[in-house]
């Protein structure tokens, strides 16, 4: 194969951005041959913007079965992700899945199990893993030169959205249409980065507030407390109602502290391991010595284009992905655990009880209110995920 | 009265510092006439350092009854604070109480009730209220020009202590001797500032970890989630095991965000109220405009000396205190609520059930282990509460 013929299913905010990037030739080896969308207004946009050589389908399944594609990019509402990816595998197509991997882990586990049966490339659109700040944090924590993690505080409240955003689609911010709020839509990146850098928590207790800042039925404000495998604790605080929000990711380790904020990464490195110092120092109020320095962050932040390039290159020449599709379940597990903990009003241990989660989710889907007076709008998202810390 | 004759009960880390300041004439109108301490080593220090005119007692009650003092400064282990203050009132003495006001609110409520019966000056050593950064935050929040509070995040983990600190006194960090750990000893200032600036929470859920970083039976690591009266949520994260720790106090309001860190106070002020913007903006991903500026923080940070000066001036000429003694119960209520929530493993509403708290505390006091091999040390605390943010 010299070129990968790709089809995009779902041409909304994200799908249309990907389509334009591919169309402009930004991704060597990828040709956009087909798109699918259930909305006429979006198919109209395709006709007007992507040229006649792109075949347009109503249903993703038609695109998958068309023989026009070697790979698909699934950018539909979240519930449909696993089903479409599984179908793509059945038709021998490689798949790149937008985040989140799905809405509930049971569904995503089935997708992962299907992936295991095929020798096909499966990737997740975790474009924030290309951010050199987070890459550096991941390397430093994994490298253990700073010792074990002692505490994690991520205040990631800069996902501001207006009511107009929530009013722009009838599936948005409903239990039945989207399956959640800020945890499902905005935070999959952060939850993936959290587990990628710090490892999976073993217990989570979350406080989710539904429609706290907007007229929506799902959560737009979350504070989660968690415990890592080694006993370190952390918080993850997010919202779409804070302006200006904060994106400050702090990891305290035995031999120092990492803080990412405003696109900068600062390291305070200790001369000795604090755990040793604590038990050998003769002074009561003294602290181990160390110094701050801003880390030199080099390398481009290729974001979505980087993920697409790696996906194409993996298919064509076997080079590494940015994020394997099978890893999508981890961040979703965290998200599910936060929801479940908040619904049950108690701590939840991981891995979660998938059946119980689905049961609780389904209760909410049944009671989900269908939105009225929705004007379908495709917003220009440029700048919304390219902020200093790469949101 | 031209001069106030003051006696200090408890000449440990803090009491000795206060004694030296008064002795040096730093506080106009205060003369140190007596001290009391149960430890011979400390009485010896008084003889060697404070001169012969300072009368030395073994028991605080003897000092109170001696007729040598018009006022007392109580700087004993925490459990004794309310009893000694009440006794001082009975003898017609003014009282300045070191933080915390006591160990459990029931005891402190009795102290406050006694204070109401006497026309005596009663003050708390909340020296961090003199910090111009916190004063400014308090004024800005109270003034309402930034609207209502939406979120509070205080990461106050820079209370680092070594094992040697905990080994320096047999009462330290035991349920029976101190009644708690970082919440009772290091955080009373922060909990007071939290309620002073943001108002009292209505519900708290805390995760306290006992002896996580040190060989102690009480908590040295706490993450607390709380809800304010208006529904805003917050976290309060503290530890004596983090090096370097963080002191970052962030308050998000409807019209801006305040962040105090590294002795600086930054304000991001919005042009419009976010609550209005959210429901009137036609764009989905846009944010209300605004700008950051570092606030000019003027005024000296007089700390303990400021509190002592205000105490003396109140007695001599009726000028305002830095912190009224009756306000000490607020921060302690928060501390008690955090402990209780963690012990019961569930959220606790405020005001707390004082009887239940005392019952739970007493269980822990009964099981409290008496420390062995303790070397009594009076550390030099200079610099430990004078850090950039005034700890």
UniProtKB/TrEMBL annotation, chains A, B:
InterPro entries: Gfo/Idh/MocA-like_OxRdtase_N, Gfo/Idh/MocA_Oxidoreductase, GFO_IDH_MocA-like_dom, NAD(P)-bd_dom_sf. Residues 134-258 form the GFO/IDH/MocA-like oxidoreductase domain. Residues 4-124 form the Gfo/Idh/MocA-like oxidoreductase N-terminal domain. One of its GO terms (molecular function) is nucleotide binding. PANTHER family: D-GLUCOSIDE 3-DEHYDROGENASE, UDP-N-ACETYL-2-AMINO-2-DEOXY-D-GLUCURONATE OXIDASE. This is Predicted dehydrogenase. It comes from Anaerocolumna xylanovorans DSM 12503.
């Amino acid at each position: 194969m010299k070129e990968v013929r790709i089809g995009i299913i779902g041409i909304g905010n994200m799908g249309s951005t990907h389509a334009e990037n591919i169309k402009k030739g930004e991704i060597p080896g990828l040709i956009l041959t087909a798109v699918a969308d259930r909305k006429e207004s979006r198919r109209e946009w395709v006709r007007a913007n992507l040229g006649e050589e792109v075949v347009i389908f109503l249903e993703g399944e038609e695109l998958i079965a068309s023989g026009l594609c070697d790979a698909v990019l699934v950018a539909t509402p979240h519930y449909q992700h696993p089903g479409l990816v599984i179908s793509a595998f059945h038709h021998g197509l490689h798949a790149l899945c937008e985040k989140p991997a799905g809405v509930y882990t049971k569904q995503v586990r089935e997708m992962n199990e299907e992936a295991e049966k095929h020798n096909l490339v499966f990737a997740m659109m975790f474009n924030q893993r290309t951010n050199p700040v987070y890459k550096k944090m991941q390397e430093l924590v994994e490298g253990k030169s700073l010792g074990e993690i002692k505490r994690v505080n991520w205040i990631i409240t800069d996902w501001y959205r207006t009511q107009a955003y929530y009013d722009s689609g009838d599936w948005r911010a409903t239990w039945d249409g989207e399956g959640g709020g800020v945890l499902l839509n905005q935070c999959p990146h952060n939850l993936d980065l959290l587990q990628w850098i710090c490892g999976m928590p073993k217990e989570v207790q979350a406080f989710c507030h539904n429609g706290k800042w907007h007229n929506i039925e799902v959560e737009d404000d979350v504070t989660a407390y968690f415990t890592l495998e080694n006993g370190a604790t952390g918080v993850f605080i997010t919202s779409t109602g804070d302006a200006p929000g904060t994106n400050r990711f702090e990891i305290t380790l035995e031999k120092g502290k990492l803080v990412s904020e405003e696109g900068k990464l600062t390291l305070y490195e200790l001369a000795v391991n604090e755990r040793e110092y604590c038990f050998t120092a003769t002074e009561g109020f003294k602290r181990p010595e160390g110094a701050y320095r801003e880390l030199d962050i080099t390398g481009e932040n290729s974001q979505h284009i980087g993920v697409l390039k790696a996906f194409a290159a993996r298919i064509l020449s076997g080079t590494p992905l940015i994020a394997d599709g099978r890893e999508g379940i981890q961040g979703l597990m965290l998200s599910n655990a936060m929801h479940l903990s908040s619904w049950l009003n108690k701590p939840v241990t991981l891995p979660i009880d998938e059946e119980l989660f689905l049961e609780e989710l389904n209760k909410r889907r049944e009671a989900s209110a269908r939105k009225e007076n929705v004007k379908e709008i495709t917003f220009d998202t440029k700048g919304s995920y390219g902020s200093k810390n790469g949101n």
